[in-house]
Design a protein that fits this description.
alpha+beta, rod-shaped, Gyrase A, domain 2
Length: 195
């Protein structure tokens, strides 16, 4: 029987496996290093491009800063002009408002049947005192006032029958209050519920 010593063959095989594993490990390490280098270079290029873009955007933003400042100044001037225009419109409406109200009052008075003796206005409440031929004339006057555009509401405060013995005539003295266009109701504060 022939004996063959296989130990040197196994040892050579074992060395070959170790060498192959070391080669695979070294090759993997080199590939990993190359891959990391490629990723690093790619990120470096991206960062450099972003820095260039950022610097160009900063320069562009600096050119727009003056334009933005001018726009803000123009907006401020526009707001001031609008406020002035609103004041002018309000003054014009207040200037023409009383004239129109007096015109409507004169048109609402029944001719030769009603005479106004006193007229006063405070905070949009117009108080009218006068004398009429009868209660129907006062009612007609109130209806005419309610139909006027510058009068919001009309309330009869008093109406007293007065005898004029010199003329053998009975007349009615009256007092009316009217809310006018200038009257603004105050907002009622909301009742807060206690908890």
């Amino acid at each position: 029987m022939i004996r063959i010593n296989l130990l040197p063959f196994r040892a050579a095989r074992k060395k070959e496996n170790i060498r192959r594993q070391i080669s695979v490990f070294a090759l993997s390490f080199v590939c990993l290093a190359l891959l990391m280098g490629f990723v690093f270079l790619n990120f470096s290029r991206t960062v450099a491009a972003l820095e260039v873009d950022m610097s160009s955007k900063k320069k562009e933003l600096a050119t727009y800063a003056e334009t933005t400042k001018k726009i803000q100044e123009l907006k401020k001037k526009i707001a001031e002009v609008r406020a002035k225009l609103n004041v002018i419109k309000e003054l014009e409406s207040k200037k023409t408002g009383p004239v129109l109200l007096l015109d409507e009052l004169s048109m609402a008075v029944p001719k030769e049947k009603l005479w106004l003796t006193d007229l006063s206005e405070k905070k949009g409440i117009l108080t009218l005192k006068g004398t009429a031929m009868d209660n129907d004339t006062v009612a007609l006057f109130m209806t005419n006032l309610e139909n006027a555009t510058h009068v919001v509401s009309v309330d009869l405060q008093t109406a007293k029958l007065k005898n004029l013995p010199k003329y053998k005539l009975n007349v009615v003295d009256f007092v009316l209050t009217c809310k006018t266009y200038a009257y603004k109701e105050k907002a009622k504060p909301e009742n807060k519920k206690k908890r």
